[in-house]
Structures are given as C-alpha cells and as structure tokens.
Design goal:
Blueprint lengths: L1 H4 L23 H17 L3 H14 L4 H13 L3 H14 L4 H13 L3 H12 L7 H14 L3 H14 L4 H13 L3 H14 L4 H13 L3 H14 L4 H5 L10
Helix pairs in contact: 2-3, 2-4, 3-4, 4-5, 5-6, 6-7, 6-8, 7-8, 8-9, 8-10, 9-10, 10-11, 11-12, 12-13
Length: 253
C-alpha cells in the first residue's frame, strides 16, 4: 500500500531531473527560487538531504511567497522528521493560494501520513473537485488510499471508483481497488481489477504478490504458482518475494 504514498507529493510545477550543471540560468529572483526548490526536490530523491536543505532554504530566502517553494519545504522537513515545521510550510502554501490544487493535495498527503486521515481525505476531495486540477483521478486515488489505511474500506472503494470514472484506465486506482476488494473478501472482484490492471500496467512486486494472494484465496493453485514464479524470477530480492516464504503469505501487502 505504501507504493502510492511515494507519489502523493508530485508537484505539477516540478521539472524533470535537473542537476546544477544542467539547470538553465534564472532571470529573476522568483525564477531562482523555483529553480532552487526544484533542485532541492531532486536532491531529496537522490537521498542527498543536506544539499536539498541548502537549496530549499535558499529558495525560501529568495521567495517565501511561492506556494511551490513552500510545498518543497514541507516535503523536506517531513524527511527531516520535523512534522510541525513541515505542516507550517504546507499550510503556508495553501494560505498563499487557497485554490491551488497541488497545495490542497500536498496538505492532504501530509495529514494522511500523520494520523489525521479524515482531514486528509477532505483535502484530497477539495483538490479533486477543484476545476483548476488537471488530474482529479490522482486526488481521488489518494483519498482512497488514505481511507484504506484508516480501515474505512467502504469509503476507499467509493473514492477509487470515482478515480476510475475520471480516467480509464488509471493503473494506480485499479491496483488499489484490487487490494481493497481483497481486503473486503471479494476475491472475484479483486481478480477482475487485477486483470484490468495487467492489460495496461507493468508488473510490480506488489501486484504480483497480490495476484498470488488473490488466486490462493480463490483456490486456484496453478494461477497462484504462476504469480509466485513471476515474482521470484523478476524481483528475487524484493520484500514481496520474501513474503512468499513467510507463514503470513496470504496477508495483504
């Protein structure tokens, strides 16, 4: 389930990887702030948190009124395990632009990860219903993940179906729906969503393990063995492959 949490904080303005020697020159202080924030996010992705902090702190000095800069600071201070500081930056981003769907989505992700699931869901729904948001299926899926983590499987399914209705196919929503269906004991429905996913999505350790679990629950050992074999061959060092040999292999990933 943690797989989608890795993308809860994708900011629309963040460019593809750009290291310092590849970055274009900034023409204004505002441009320089955005550039430093982008670089900071990229350094975080590479695990270079100290350099990321230098870049993002500089961006905050250059233009603290940029919502994207504030969101990047929120992500940084979450990684530094300073949640109060992180929340302050996320809320500042939303204060600067109350209708910014990325800021709504980012605050929702923070709240969901920090024990305020229902408030997080509410923020995701604001983002999803925001006419400025180009990808409402992402926010609906995030709301579904948040509800699922909080044990509210009925609401999770409701949000995920909304995500699928917004964009077909949307692979993240499909695999999440398979997981929710499995947890609710609806194994045939879980199989159906996994089959839909497999026509458009790539195999991942999480998907293959879930497929194994679903087929095992349905009493199809040949299909379960096929998923298990693919998981061991394609991802032999993954945590999911190790779960196959554990006593609780039938539990949800």
């Amino acid at each position: 389930m943690n797989r989608i949490l890795a993308v809860l904080l994708l900011f629309a303005w963040v460019a593809p990887p750009a290291l310092a020697d590849q970055a274009p020159a900034a023409s204004t202080t505002a441009d320089a702030a955005r550039l430093n924030a982008r670089l900071g996010v990229e350094y975080m992705k590479q695990g270079q948190v100290a350099i990321a902090r230098e870049k993002i702190d500089k961006a905050l000095q250059q233009n603290p009124r940029d919502p994207g800069v504030q969101m990047s600071a929120g992500l940084l201070y979450e990684q530094l395990r300073e949640p109060k500081v992180a929340e302050r930056h996320y809320r500042q981003a939303l204060k600067l632009e109350p209708d910014n769907p990325e800021a709504q989505n980012a605050l929702g992700a923070f709240l969901c990860r920090n024990g305020e699931a229902e408030d997080g869901e509410a923020m995701f729904l604001q983002a999803a219903r925001n006419p400025l948001y180009r990808t409402p299926e992402v926010a609906y899926t995030n709301a579904g993940v948040c509800a699922r983590r909080n044990g509210r499987l009925d609401k999770s399914e409701e949000y995920l179906r909304l995500a699928i209705s917004q964009r077909t196919p949307y692979t993240e929503a499909l695999v999440q729906m398979a997981g929710v269906s499995f947890e609710r004991g609806n194994h045939l429905q879980a199989r159906a969503f996994l089959q839909r996913y497999q026509t458009v999505g790539q195999a991942t350790p999480e998907v293959l393990l879930l497929g194994y679990q679903v087929e095992k629950a349905l009493g199809d050992p040949a299909a379960a063995d096929d998923f298990a074999g693919r998981l061991r061959r394609q991802f032999p060092d993954s945590p999911e492959a190790k779960i196959l040999d554990a006593p609780a292999a039938g539990s949800t990933p």
